[in-house]
Amino acid sequence: STSTSTSTSTSTSTSTTEVACSASTPMDLVFILDSSASLGVPSWQQILEFVAGMINNVVIGPNDVQVGVVIFSNGARVEIDLDEYLNSGDLVAAVLALPFLGTGTNIGGALKTASRTLLTDAGRGRRGQYPSSVVFVTDGTPTDSDTNVQQGIWALQNSTSNVVSVGVGGAVDYALLTRIAGVDGSVFNVSDTGVLRARPTVLDVLEPAVCAVDALVPSSSTSTSTSTSSSTSTSSSTSTSTSTSTSSSTSTTTSTSTSTSSSTSTSTSTS
User: Under 8 Å CB-to-CB from 174, ≥6 apart: which residues?
Assistant: First the structure.
């Protein structure tokens, strides 16, 4: 009898490793936070807890990360200068105490305020030798004019190259978030503020986008194995069997991700 068996297996995997903020990532980080009436006080507190969570994952200091905050509703104002708090404990306490404004959604005014103060003014703590990143959070659409919004976008993009736009809930204008982020920025959309502050979901995906424009480092590995066995003996019968199996799996974690906890969040990155 003659019998031949051949088996071939191929597996390919691609993964992307997130780069977390570290002491070697000094930057001026500016949060622009929607404090409009549609949020309500409980959701506002969850946004502040989200900001506090990011602060607790970086090194705060004059030679490391500085954090500034603009809040907006009908108007916009700087609540925390970049050099106002240079240790994480005091900074987190100040963030968690930020007031809820509870009126309109002046997005253009907020972008202009951040651009003209925290992102460009040394008197507000801006350090020219370090890059800046912006995290913009909103739950709705602007109540100011399209012209004002566009002027705010231009001002923002002329003052920083790394903008992360975060939309909360289903009422956000995704196209507007994309315009605010710009070609080098990232856009995330989450179902509610509770998901926004959750680990290990949104924070773990969002932090690398904040820390650097090239925040995701791809790595790939491919392995192929082939084995063939053959045996021959003489008899009055001949049988041949061939089996081939191919498996391919691809796993990629990028700035575009879907994560699920008690509710579902979807985040999408454009760059």
Answer: 167, 187, 189
Which amino acid, residue 237? Answer: S
Buried b or exposed e, range 156-174, using 16+ CB within 10 angstroms:
bbebbebbbbbbbbeebbe
DSSP-based three-state secondary structure for 80: strand
Query: How far apart are the C-alpha atoms of 146 and 246, rounded to whole Å?
Result: 54
Q: Residue 169, by phi and psi: left (phi above 0), alpha (psi -120 to 50) or beta?
A: left
Judged by DSSP in three states, 227 sits in: strand
Closest listed residue to residue 218, CA positions, set 250, 189, 241: 250
CB 49 within 8 A of CB 93: no
What is the tens place of the pLDDT at every residue in 87-114? 999 999 999 999 999 999 999 999 999 9
How far is it, in rounded angstroms, from Cα 141 to Cα 158? Answer: 23
Which residues is 223 bridged to in the sheet?
A: 11
* Contact partners, residue 52, CB within 8 Å, separation at least 6: 92, 95, 96
Residue written as token pair 């790394």: 162
Residue 151's alpha-carbon distances to 154, 179, 262, in angstroms, are 5, 12, 38
Look at the pTM and tell me if it is higher than 0.85.
no
The Cα–Cα gap between 124 and 196 comes to 28
The pLDDT tens digits of the residues spanning 175-201 come to 999 999 998 788 988 888 887 766 555
Residue 258: strand, helix, or coil: strand
Residues 220 and 15: beta-carbon distance below 8 Å? yes
Say how far apart CA 34 and CA 75 lie, in whole Å.
10
Query: CA-CA distances (angstroms) from residue 41 to 48, 78, 98, 103, 173?
Result: 11, 20, 11, 12, 22
